[in-house]
Write a structure and sequence with these properties.
The protein is of the alpha+beta class and 81 residues long. Helix content is 48%, strand content 19%.
Amino acid sequence: MKKVALAKIKDDLSRYLRLAADSEIVITRHGRAAGVLIGFATEEDWFEYRLEHHPGFLERIARAREAIRRNKGVRLEEVKD
């Protein structure tokens, strides 16, 4: 993970956005972390990021895991094609 000052990011955002596709870039302000720049190499990467951070999806996963813990759910390994 690379750290870059906000002033540098503002001067060359396109370059840093390309670099962020390979590795997150921590944006600093006055030497302190202020944000993170995340780039996506493909549309699939963007879709996966949105899915992984979607509150409804995360809630559904949590409910499914809880059901499995209480022996009320079905594990994927048990699903027949």
